[in-house]
Amino acid sequence: MIDFDTALALVLTEARPLPCETVALEAAAERVLAIDLRARGDAPRAAVSAMDGYAVRDADLATLPARLPIATVAFAGRADVPRLPGGTCARVFTGGPVPHGADRIVVQEIVGRDGDMALFEVTPGPGNHIRSAGSDFQSGDTLLPAGTVLGFRAMVAAAAADVANLSVVRRPRIVILGTGDELAEPGQALETPGSIPESVSFGVAALARQCGGEVIDRRRLTDTPETLEAAARLALSEADLVVVTGGASVGEKDYARSMFAPFGLELIFSKVAIKPGKPVWFGRAGGALILGLPGNPTSALVTARLFMAPLVAGLAGRDPAALLSWRDMTLSAPLKACGDRETFERGRLVGGGVAGLAVQDSATQMALATADVLIRRRAGAAALSAGDSALVLDF
């Protein structure tokens, strides 16, 4: 059995980005750029108006009031750039090309109209309301560096680069195997004597997707060696990461590791000195990584957050360290002394501080849903009082 920091370091060693692939822009959201994204052209390509108004030459407004004939109209999307003769103005709309010779756009709110004449009676403000060519970016500029997660803001820049496809890190394919004779699909447990709803895989799958993974299958398995071995064979042929829940202790039907033995299972670690989650294990077989999580819901989700989340993020090209950002917070309530294993207590953010949940049982599900953070307690740590500081991680 190894300590938490050693186990995490072993996981992070495997958290390397997968090869890249090309996807359509519309399919790239939340993916990670594999190479720098450079603009194909200038933005804007020509000077455009930032406001609805009238393009004018400053010389023609030297004396006010002024009456100028409207020589042309420029809507957004007009391909040609008109020329503005002296002594005239142009009706221009936001995004429309600014006529050659114009010095500014006068906003429409301060311009009067008399048929085809524009009436200027008020001195324009200091801004010219013109977006010059290339003022946003120029052809060849790097809009997004490699490693950028394509969130909603980055997607705007990606589309503005005028590219139809992007090179991104391939998302890790993940298969989740939930083991246990007692498990039933949610919605069927009450009708199946002796069963409970299989809940863990739903939380694990949601966390994996949140970290950049692609869950390609989620299977519920009975504790039958033949069934488990067949499922292991299929999962290893499909996945970059197989996550197994349950069957990791020492009971007569705990087959989580043995189901992979025929495929050359190489254990990286087996058991970690933490609470909850001592039975968590990690290995590889058949070219895939395998993470074994405990079957109890809280234990499974705590270990998934500590080990699976940074692993999936790293495989997806994200920075695993971003998911391991521990910070000091003030306790709103006291904590008991820690036992002989490093402990990750579930806590809630309360009034600018943090308090441990009253229920810390590894099988709890209702209390699990109320937790905001994990509170890290070193093995043998003394009791803490309200007002003391503790390390926490978003959960």
Give your account of this protein's structure:
- The protein has five helices and 26 strands.
- With 395 residues, the protein is α+β, with helices and mostly antiparallel strands.
- It has a six-stranded mixed β-sheet, with no helix packed on it.
- Strand 20 (281-285) and strand 21 (288-293) form a beta hairpin.
- The two termini are 25 Å apart.
Itemize the secondary structure elements and their pairings.
Elements (H helix, E strand, L loop, with lengths): L3 H11 L5 E5 L12 E2 L9 E2 L3 E4 L9 E9 L14 E4 L11 E4 L3 E4 L2 E4 L9 E2 L10 E3 L7 H9 L4 E5 L3 E7 L3 E2 L11 E2 L2 H11 L3 E8 L3 H14 L2 E5 L20 E5 L3 E2 L5 E5 L2 E6 L3 H19 L11 E4 L11 E9 L2 E4 L16 E5 L11 E6 L1
Parallel strand pairs: 5-6, 13-16, 13-17, 14-15, 17-21, 19-23
Antiparallel strand pairs: 1-12, 2-11, 3-10, 4-6, 4-7, 5-9, 8-9, 18-20, 20-21, 22-26, 23-24, 23-25, 25-26
Percentage of residues in helical conformation = 10-25%
Main sheet?
A: 6 strands, mixed
**Structural class based on helices, strands and sheet pairing:** alpha+beta
Q: Ranges with pLDDT <50 over ≥5 residues?
A: none
- Main sheet: which strands, in order across? 7-4-6-5-9-8
What separation lies between the terminal Cα atoms? 25 Å
- How much of the polypeptide forms β-strand, as a percent range? 25-35%
The Rg value, from CA coordinates, equals: 31 Å
Shape: elongated
* Total beta-strand segments: 26
Q: Output the number of helix runs.
A: 5
Q: What integer is the average pLDDT?
A: 96
Tags for this model:
395 residues, alpha+beta, six-stranded mixed beta sheet, 5 helices, 26 strands, 30% strand, elongated
